Request: fold
Amino acid sequence: NEARMRETIQTALNRSDVVILTGGLGPTEDDLTKEVTAEVMGMKLVEDRHSRKLMEAYLEQYKKNNPQRKITANNYKQAMVPKGAIVLDNHNGTAPGLILEKKGKTAILLPGPPGEMKPMFEESVFPYLREKQPEIIYSQMVKICGVGESQVEDKILDLIDKQQNPTIATYAKTGEVHIRVTAKAATEEDAKKLVKPVVKEIKNRFGDYV
Reply:
């Protein structure tokens, strides 16, 4: 539903600096994510020659492996990209990923199939986001069994009361209580160093219940 999608994307961009959308980048009429997002952000669609070449090579190989399948012209709709967008190569499919930036807002469009979306996120989107937010957030979970949540909190209340970095949070699970220790630092190594003594202290206090 084009109108509903437009409204949803606009709402998301109004309240967030970065919006990530998955799916809807394919060749068929109901694949509207790119078109609607580009419209919302005021960006015209133009053909990206690099994406077109990658797509042609991919489809040619696909045709060789599946001679009974016909390659239809609508596939090349996927080579149309918003003008000025960062185009992310898709090494596992045809639809490129896209990063649209405008007026301090960013929309990141990824293909829906997990086999395409996950590697693209790891290869291209994660480094992009890391540059935008250079600090590392690192968490470690300590799982406690045989002690209730209120009892767990009571035993570490002094640590919780004075927490700054790292922070400590308790979560009640079925038959367990999880304590998450989270630190923020410039590097993962520095964050781990902050977490380590707190986790050690928690383990000391709960012993065999960990």
The CA atoms of residues 45 and 82 lie 4 Å apart. The longest strand covers residues 136-145. The radius of gyration is 23 Å. The chain has six helices and nine strands.
